[in-house]
Known about the structure:
two-stranded antiparallel sheet
Amino acid sequence: ADLDGMDITLPEDRIKYLESHTQALELQLVYRTEQTSNAVAECDALREKLTEATQKCEDEKKLSMEVMRAMTRQYKGMQEDLLNKINERE
C-alpha cells in the first residue's frame, strides 16, 4: 500500500501510520475548535461593545435634543421678555 508517498506493506506499520495520522488530525481539530471558540467569544464581545456604543449614542442624541429644546424655550422666553419691555417703553 502507498500512503502519502510512503510504501507501507506491513499491516502493523500501516496501523501505526494511520493511528499517527488520526492523532495529528485530532490535534488539528482541537486547535481549530479552540480558534473557533475564541473567535466566537471575540465576536460576542465586539457585538456587546457595539450594542453599548449604539445605546450611548442614542442617549447622547436624546440629551442633545433635550438641551436644544430647553435652549429654544429659554430663547423664546427671553425674546418675549424683550418684546414686552420694548412695548412697555412705547
